[in-house]
Amino acid sequence: MTGTTDTITGMTFQPGRTALEAVGLGVKYRRRRALEDCSFRIPAGRVCALVGPNGAGKSTLLALAAGLRRPTAGSLTVFGGRPGAADVRPRIAYLSQDKPLYPQFTIADTLRMGRELNPGRWDRAAAERMVAEGGLSSTARVGDLSGGQRTRVALALAFGKRPELLLLDEPMADLDPLARHELTAALMGQAAEHATTVVIASHVLAELDGICDYLLLVADGRVRLAGEVEDLLAAHALLVGRHEGPGLPREFATHTVVEARATGRQLTALIRPDGPVPERWRVAEPSLEELLLAHLRAPGAPALLAPSAEPRTPHRPRAQGPSQEPRAVA
Ligand SMILES: Nc1ncnc2c1ncn2[C@@H]1O[C@H](COP(=O)(O)OP(=O)(O)OP(=O)(O)O)[C@@H](O)[C@H]1O
């Protein structure tokens, strides 16, 4: 496999291949708009953080990518195909927030089901390792497990499928810190070993730092930031300086101000600099958490797509007809 190795994640990725591409993507639930005119691309082999406030559209986006829902406008493709298509679906593993499992099954029954549902691609060793590392007995009933233990079994099913695209909807929410740490390591190991593309929705911003090399920030159904974490961080600057009177300092006029906050006599601003910043400001590159928090607090800030996140398919808006109405989840 030809590709470049990421220095943070150790993963091999192929910048030319596209895992996910959205063009003018929209979803409406009856009258409610969950996603609107979203266009972005996630290159294959990336570990992408999907971030946004409650109700931003993250779960909707993951359900679309898993082929469980259809867009009401635009398109979303996975490895160039329709997510629900017979040749694409086996390449995707999706772990929803509610992690559906059969409570009456034992862990062994559950893994056997995984093997039967994924003939020819089931990685028994990976699935069993995931269960064993949690100290779980294969004879334990799923219904008797704690929330975190069920998450582990659900992840074992997802890993066992040996997916090319792993979609995780807040997978760590009910795990204790140690289990989170272990599962993150297992996830990264799997992803690095098999060059899996991972899209992971999470509200725990600190947890994403160091795991993810790609970012998709959505707010109010729209894409706000998309691209390599490194590039997005480098495109921003955190300024700290003296607050002199009301309003934004005049020297900010040439820059894009994402957010500016005054605390007493101090002003802290996250900007996208366009040219030099006067010396009176202390300038630092923001952390991922600072970048995300500033954008979450300032939903009106202009969106930014890195070149690698620009879709390659041209956007041709179509009139919406009855055939584009929402359909039931498969
Ligand atoms: N089945 C549904 N029927 C009607 N509206 C829905 C449905 N599912 C989601 N929505 C609405 O669509 C919008 C996006 O929801 P979604 O669950 O995708 O957001 P989210 O970013 O995953 O939120 P959270 O972080 O709270 O999980 C919200 O306004 C939500 O109320």
From TrEMBL:
PROSITE patterns cross-referenced by the UniProt entry: ABC_TRANSPORTER_1, ABC_TRANSPORTER_2
Name the UniProt record assigns to this protein: ABC transporter ATP-binding protein
Keywords associated with the record: ATP-binding, Nucleotide-binding, Transport
Top-rank lineage group of the source organism: Bacteria
Alphabetical list of Pfam families matching this protein: ABC_tran (PF00005)
Gene3D superfamilies recorded: P-loop containing nucleotide triphosphate hydrolases (3.40.50.300)
Gene Ontology terms, MF aspect: ATP binding; ATP hydrolysis activity
This protein's record includes keyword Transport: yes
Keyword Nucleotide-binding appears in the UniProt entry: yes
SMART domains cross-referenced by the UniProt entry: AAA (SM00382)
Residue numbers spanned by region Disordered: 303-330
